Amino acid sequence: MNKETPAPQSLTLHGASRVLEVGFADGAQFRIPFELMRVYSPSAEVQGHGPGQEVLQTGKRDIDIVDIEPVGNYAVKPTFSDGHDSGLFTWPYLYFLGSQQQELWADYERRLQAAGRDRDEAMPEKSGGSCGHHH
């Protein structure tokens, strides 16, 4: 556990506004959108197994967190409404998401543009069938 990161003192799910509110011991208070958490989920499914293997997530604007459970005393594991539940969000990672939100959104927008994808596009089915490109 990174000693630099203060432990969170409060964790509140706001379902209506779709944000996770986290208060840390150093007084930092973040409201992290579910979409951001889902897009930057630390799971292999999203991050891939190495640099450049990240899977760009789209269509997650209306994502909900249906359940969130503590993992030891170092992380939480949210279950998202699309069934994704393999991401372990450690305190340092939540702090990172909260404090770097603007940069992360900008980076996400950049990656979407680079891939020619739309933020609200549905994710391609896992089957690996043909992907229809409509312009």
Give a description of the structure:
- This protein is α+β, with helices and mostly antiparallel strands and 135 residues long.
- The chain has one domain (8-115): 2-Layer Sandwich (NE0471 N-terminal domain-like), CATH 3.30.2020.
- It has four helices and six strands; from the N terminus they run E-E-E-H-H-E-E-E-H-H.
- The strands form two sheets. It has a three-stranded antiparallel β-sheet.
- Strand 5 (75-80) and strand 6 form a beta hairpin.
- The termini are far apart.
Question: What labels describe this entry?
Answer:
135 residues; alpha+beta; NE0471 N-terminal domain-like; 3-stranded antiparallel beta sheet; 4 helices; globular
Short description:
By secondary structure, the chain is of the alpha+beta class.
